[in-house]
Amino acid sequence: MLCGRSRCVRTVGTRVGPHNSTTGKALACEPTSHFSGHPLIFAELAAFFSSFSSRNSDPGSDFSSEFKARAFDIDGFGDSSNGYDRARKMGSENFGDLSLLGSRKNDCDNDQSKKFGIFDDIEGSDGGEEESSGDEDDDGGGGGGDGDLTVLDSSNRVHEKGENFGRVDGDEEEFRHPLVREVCRLIEFRSGWSPKLEGELKNLLRSLKPRQVCAVLKSQSDERVALKFFYWADRQWRYKHHPVVYYAMLEVLSKTKLCQGAKRVLRLMARRGIERSPEAFGCVMVSYSRAGKLRHALRVLTLMQKAGVELNVSMCNTAIHVLVMGNKLEKALRVLERMQLVGITPDVVTYNCLIKGYCDVHRVQDALELIDEMPKRGCAPDKVSYYTVMGFLCKENRVEEVRGLMEKMIKDSGLLPDQVTYNNLVHVLSKHGYGDEALEFLREAEERGLRFDKVGYSAIVHSFCKDSRIDKAKEIVNEMFSKGCTPDVVTYTAVLDGYCRLGKVDQAKKMLQHMYKHGCRPNTVSYTALLNGLCRSQNSLEAREMMKVSEEEWWTPNAITYSVVMHGFRREGKLVEACDIVREMVNKGFFPNPVEINLLIQSLCREGKITEAKRFMEECLSKGCAINVVNFTTVIHGYCQKDDLDAALSLLDDMYLSNKHPDTVTYTTVIHALGKNGRIQEATELMKKMLGKGLDPTPVTYRTVIHWYCQMGKVDELLQLLEKMFLRQNCKTAYNQVIEKLCSFGNLEEADKLLGKVLRTASRVDAKTCHSLMGGYLRNGDPLSAYKVACRMFNRNLIPDLKLCEKVTKRLMLDGNSKEADNLMLRFVERGCISNQHQEHLQS
């Protein structure tokens, strides 16, 4: 067994976590010749698959992900997509990261074209929009996935065996090679590419070895940049991508949501006559799953079958992983059943994926039962099987159950807890704020003769600091010294950040000096933590001065550092200084995201500096910052607050010139301002323009329009406009809102005309609307009209409010309408709402 040392992410506020490896071995696939020998089984399979061909699709799974804006948008290199972390290893060492970059093509001996059918029932029942036929067809075929016999009977002859490029391992020497570093440097200057620079890059490209080209692709922080470079290089004269480069590009894209790019690379391989292994298709499948297109991810299996590539256990594992990550555990379990039926033997990775799926949905008992069943199915669980369940239990602080599972791991599977085991427990517990429990396991490991390094101690220190238990954290640091385990910059930074969280900035400064004293140079994260503490203590100017002398202290501010100081100035109301920080930030190559920009724009607008807010937004836009429609809407709202509607309308038009299309919120903001200023005709035209753009009105839009039209008494125009709005987005309570608004403005006659539209549904909301109208009539001294409304409610099987009707009855009696009063109370008696005695009491 490999006992890997865990590593800690060197950032403040980032939880530490281990990376471990195990030695579980994948079982070999068994032959599938039983298809020809057992025709009844074949027929049964065909019937099973065809039964799913007519199923309706349900929506594909969502993947919650946060979008991280990038700074580079140059020379057609496009917007960036957020990178995803590597999938955690879920099984044996030869399991290719769940993106299948390590499995072999010939894991099974016989032709397995029939095995593509095992996913037809899964694929056929998933939602998601269909892609266009041109994009869905990789090799001249359609999207497939019908689950019919054409998939099972079609030939699946394997391509001639060639070199296996499935694994693209990086070599540190290649990343440090001068040619690689020079190419990466030229790519960074793509914003100012000239024919000279491009010529230099072309010459360097022809000198690069295939593995060095792979190193260039993997060195790019923005995967879109890597993809653009890949395409650019492919178009160059006298240069041809080596097959290993294609696999490197697919490996990079498999960690992103750039599924269309991955599929184009796969198609390009077919056009170039490059052999495509299952690993290549696996990369595309994982990329689709990251993009939330679960159904299209499974369609990759059909494309793989049409390309004549064998289905193996690794591809099945990838499909199961995709389904588990897409919260489709039941479908993943069906895949396991189909695998066993058609002769693909599941390995430890298959079961580990399902164990993780059970834990994700809090079915830990089922996960434990699956671990118990694995030996019976010819596949012994490995440590990752147990670690997965332990990790779930640690998240919920179920320490006793973790200890019981450790005993079970020793007794049933003969797996002894080692350094990796305790590293897992310590890091997961620390990550979720259970520092005391993590410390207990650390002590236990040391009693067993295992030695923790500074990474494990730092995880516990960080946990205590986040809980504001700084004294306990200092005890751990002193213990590290006593055991000869010198704290590193991560440990010190955690304590420094802990002081800042408690507002003890002076102690944090002393900790910074303490780091220098012990030969540990603070890094950018350390200083950023201190600057954050200063800014939260209303000392943003001091933080700014520390940034100015950063070069003397041998550290360089990053984007987070600038953002911390910018928000500090903003909270203190020093908006000029905050804007200056943003300008300096952009000049340094760091770009604030739209949320940060919007907070600053809101602050400027709140102080009435609308012109400065607009100028600042336009300046950010010209510098390449990611300005979005929300930023424009904020400035427009600022103009509307100052009743400068001409400027607001002008900026609304400017949005189209900047290719930032207004949304419903933007239009509603301006419509509200126009109605407020009595410019109802312009509001009408703007509303029609919004509907013409295909934008759906929101409930706020309906309330805005109804309010101002009712206040102006333009009921006919309002009804016409509502009919047009209903065509885009219906609002069931629109007429209720109109009646209630008319009542509040005293226009009872128009409200009464619309009552018939409301009483068609006879809901509780309609009853509330009728009560508003009755109250309006009572206030106007017209109880007879209120009585008529109550009668109409009874006719629609709606029971009016008894107390309100008692007021109506009294007013009717005073006005000499005793017959109507008696009739109203009689209606309540008939419905069993009041007794005869109560009625007589009211009459008396």
From TrEMBL:
Q: Which PROSITE patterns match?
A: PPR
The alphabetized list of GO BP terms reads: mitochondrion organization; RNA processing
Question: Which Pfam family would be a valid example here?
Answer: PPR_1
Q: Which UniProt keywords apply?
A: Repeat
| Compositionally biased tracts (Acidic residues) | 120-140
Does the keyword Repeat belong to this entry?
Answer: yes
- Disordered: where is this region? 115-155
Q: GO CC terms on record?
A: mitochondrion
In terms of superkingdom, the source organism counts as: Eukaryota
Task: List the molecular function annotations (GO) for this entry.
Answer: mRNA binding
Q: Does the keyword Repeat apply?
A: yes
Swiss-Prot/TrEMBL PPR repeat ranges: 277-311, 312-346, 347-381, 382-417, 418-452, 453-487, 488-522, 523-557, 558-592, 593-627, 628-662, 663-697, 698-728, 766-800
Q: Which PANTHER family match?
A: MITOCHONDRIAL GROUP I INTRON SPLICING FACTOR CCM1-RELATED (PTHR47934:SF6), PENTATRICOPEPTIDE REPEAT-CONTAINING PROTEIN PET309, MITOCHONDRIAL (PTHR47934)
Report the family membership. Belongs to the PPR family. P subfamily.
| Designated name of the protein | Pentatricopeptide repeat-containing protein
